[in-house]
Description:
- This protein has 270 residues and is α+β, with helices and mostly antiparallel strands.
- The protein has helices at 46-60, 72-86, 114-119, 153-156, 161-164, 174-185, 257-265, and strands at residues 32-33, 65-67, 93-95, 98-100, 106-108, 125-130, 139-144, 192-200, 224-234, 241-251.
- It has one domain.
Amino acid sequence: xxxxxxxxxxxxxxxxxxxxxxxxxxxxxxxxxxxxxxxxxxxxxxxxxxxxxxxxxxxxxxxxxxxxxxxxxxxxxxxxxxxxxxxxxxxxxxxxxxxxxxxxxxxxxxxxxxxxxxxxxxxxxxxxxxxxxxxxxxxxxxxxxxxxxxxxxxxxxxxxxxxxxxxxxxxxxxxxxxxxxxxxxxxxxxxxxxxxxxxxxxxxxxxxxxxxxxxxxxxxxxxxxxxxxxxxxxxxxxxxxxxxxxxxxxxxxxxxxxxxxxxxxxxxxx
Length: 270
């Protein structure tokens, strides 16, 4: 019987970018400005990803959705930002207290549960980070994380950026300082994005792993390119930073020979 939490592969048809061929993206942190109207994306697998997200939200509890009491204002502001973006796009319609989505779902506009409501509207996982007075770094204060790429919300929730990135060796030292400066320097209305990419043996979107349970190296039979378009946006009222993650999974055989050769010669960016 098919596991409803691990359905058949949900794969996009093409590449959102080629970071291995773009020197601006193929390094850490490797960020670019977000084009007008491109903070959140709706692609050809919206319906399939959102159906899986609904099942995960219903079944996995705080493994996929958490918010600290202090993040209430930031989550409410995040929902307003998501609505402002979504309602400019085809297929999203506000009808009284309900939002009709491109896949036909009708999502109640529940402002008592703003993070969950936002998560049910868009393909992106949404992570809220705030820097308390006197803190050296931003910490994760709320998140919807239905498509984790080998990490768990349980280990990272309420942790600062340096701790969040454990055990990524490349993040230590100068990179950590550069990323914190980047977060500190974000301006409302000027979001940025980066892209990561890794080769996976399994196309599943829901792949939580603890820090002790390391992802095994991709074998010669690995068939899937997993990419994340990671957006960073400051909310003007709360000052919180929203880290959005749009996940793409593409079979390697769907790539051109040139892309496969360039990919195999590159060092994946996490």
